[in-house]
Amino acid sequence: MSISDGSQALAISPSEESEIAEVNQHTNGLEYHGNTSSMSFLGNLQRLREQRTNQSDPAERKSFSLVSVLHNPSFVSRRHITSDLTVALAANGFYSKRANTFIEGYFGGIHYVHPIIDKEDFLSRADELWRGTNCSDVHFIALYLSVLSLGALTRTWNESSLDGLNRFQWSRKLFAEAQTLLDEIHEMSFLLGRPDTLGQDEYHNRAMPPIDDSEYAIISAMVQFGRIMRKVSIGIYHSQLPTLETIGLACDIEREMDDWVNSLPQRRGASLRDPDWRRKQRLVLDLRYHNVRMLLFRPFVTQCARNSTQPPYELMAAVEKCISSAQKTIEIVYEAYKVHTYFRTWWYNTTYITIAASVLLLYESWTKERPATSNLALIETAIEILEVMDESIVARNAAEVLRHFVRELNSAPNGVPENSIGQDATSVADVQQAPTPGPWPSLDFGITGFEFLDFPLGEMTTVFDELYKSLDHNVQPD
To answer: One GO MF term, please (predicted)?
Structure first.
């Protein structure tokens, strides 16, 4: 079959790449996740199963929501803090005893990825707070507390606690105080209809910093990449072009991405003498490139999984690009984790790894041949990465769900044939009895919200789609 013959049948439809809006059972709040999220991708797995079998009775299926399953119970409504918070902070010296530790944690880490604050100016104004000479600037105090919060969250902790508080307790306490001082204006700005973070160029009234050989060059570079990401969203996920045209557009965007990444100063002339910021930016930019490349070609993996016929060459070439970036993502993070301890506390790596693993799982569930050993090994590596981040409840739960998928994939005699993908071969009891990897107790699958583990791989497609949405758009993981 030529691609032109099947182009209409394989055309990407926004209704197929469905968005998900669900109520979190723990907060009663509505959470929305768009069709470029990993939650949506997992939804493709569920729809794949429904496409292949009609044997099960829908009335007997247990409903599940990963939005609720992956909810972090540590994030609760803020307690009311006295309106005289500024006075209380001043009396406490604005946490001067621990401030430098957290500030260095911020400026020595994620500041290099998002260098939006001038360190010298920040330290000068912070010193005024500590000396008590300027305690009236509420907006700076909120910024100060936010920096301390992020520093506490992402620094490498060699201590179990500081002054009786651990990483997450410090981070949440400081950020809650920052929110209180701002009186939630950040929420109001979105309610008032402000444009998205990037916006059109006319919304910006400050010149972009030049792309030079400094840590601040990444700002302009990421604005350029943001424009490319917008093309992915609009051109690939919000259009109904035939497959041939969509693949052509995706390849055009990929070439633009390649030109972008090859022009980055961080990519040129790598040496052992590179400053810390350059090494960290190079690592993160590589991951961002492969993450967007996965999203760019992911719809074609879904199309192949839904179509029982042999896909045309052009479609398979697009699928292989997505698989290649998924593999590379896991390899990059794994190598970084072996060398850089600090990188294990950059929690958004959970998102990158979950997307990559879900891409490989969907691909292996689709193939009619025995799953490729190399891909299964990489999925195991992804699980190991998530297990290393055992401080995060979201990472732990994601690893557990991946384990469940792998067990089911391995239980199929020849990959995941059409007729077996819909069979509920794995019961809750089987999952409960299976050994749980990692240094934590087995998850309590009997609690409300974990009923989804009663379903096999085909049914679980929604799981990682919802997972990605939770990871991308919800609060930071525990």
So the answer is: RNA polymerase II cis-regulatory region sequence-specific DNA binding
In the numeric block, the tokens 């981040």 are attached to 389
If asked whether residues 93 and 61 sit together in one domain, one would say no
Whether the CB-CB separation of 9 and 240 falls below 8 Å is answered with no
Shared domain check, 237 and 286: yes
Across the range 97-121, mean pLDDT stands at: 92
Its sign, for the CA torsion 36, 37, 39, 45, is positive
Residue positions counted in the chain? 478
Q: What distance in Å separates the CA atoms of residue 283 and residue 253, rounded to the nearest whole number?
A: 22
pLDDT digits (tens, 9 = 90+) for 396-432: 888 998 988 888 888 765 544 343 333 333 332 332 3
Q: What is the pLDDT of residue 214?
A: 78
Q: Which helix (H) or strand (E) holds 23?
A: strand 20-23
Domain assignment of residue 373, given as a range: 20-73+217-473
Separation CA 106–CA 472 (nearest Å) = 21
Helices H / strands E in the chain, number of each: 18, 2
Distant-in-sequence, close-in-space partners of 378: CB < 8 Å, separation ≥ 6 = 326, 327, 330, 331, 356, 360
Give the count of domains, the chain.
Answer: 2
Do both 334 and 430 map to the same domain? Answer: yes
288 belongs to a structural domain: yes
Please tell me whether residues 36 and 154 are part of one structural domain. no
The dihedral of CA 395, 398, 403, 409: what is its sign? negative
What average pLDDT score do residues 34-57 get?
60
Q: What is the DSSP secondary-structure string of 252-298?
A: HHHHHHHHHHHT-GGGSS--TT--HHHHHHHHHHHHHHHHHHHHHHH
How many other C-beta atoms are found inside a 10 Å radius of the C-beta of residue 94?
A: 19
Q: How far apart are CA 478 and CA 466, in angstroms?
A: 17
